[in-house]
Amino acid sequence: MRISVALAGNPNVGKSVIFNNLTGGHQHVGNWPGKTVEKKEGYFEHKGHRVYVVDLPGTYSLTAYSPEELIARSYLIEERPDVVVDIVDASNLERNLYLTLQLIELGVDLILDLNKIDLAESAGIAIDCERLSSILGVPVVETVAPKRVGMEELKDLIVELAVSKVARVEVKG
Amino acid sequence: MPLAFALEGSMVRVVGVRGGFGVGRRMAELGFTPNAILKIVKSGGLGPILVEVKGSRLAVGRGVAMKVMVEPL
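ok -> structure tokens follow
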């Protein structure tokens, strides 16, 4: 099965690091916001499925003002990827969850990726993932992208969600 | 006072955005919500003001910085 996934999130949360981890690519990564200004594509194989990943430019909201925000928004709305992974900076949830809510309202099949969970822990922030997941109604995964922590769990979730989506559509159709 | 007049290195609190609906919403999306605490990282001379807000550093142009009203902490 061919699965398409988009990586969305605020600027400088680690989308490109996760993209590289998933696809084995070497997308240029920098520790400053606005590094990715166009979308990048790659793929990986997992459990017999080929998963196409698109790395979108960072955006604070879906109300697009700048050209790179428009790229992110148009892709989500026009291309309708099977799964959207919303990557958030776990040490800065307040700012990041704004976009998360917009993505939920858009009705995409969402996975919430709490990245930089190590930074959050060292800042004394404890996140109750199960509670967050049940409040938002989306699966949550914790990752530390540069150390590749949580990548397998993320891959599992992507495939699981995409497969269950096909099952849901078939039942309806 | 406007954000444009806040001193470099100081901390301020956002009181509101004095402008139209569009600029108010955009600034809220970027984190400039009422009561948000800002740190003025760089302000002086010409050019935009560098502000730290909710864990992100943003450059704010002088025009918009005149519309964001803050109070010193």
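Strands of chain A lie at 2-9, 40-46, 49-55, 83-89, 110-115, 140-142.
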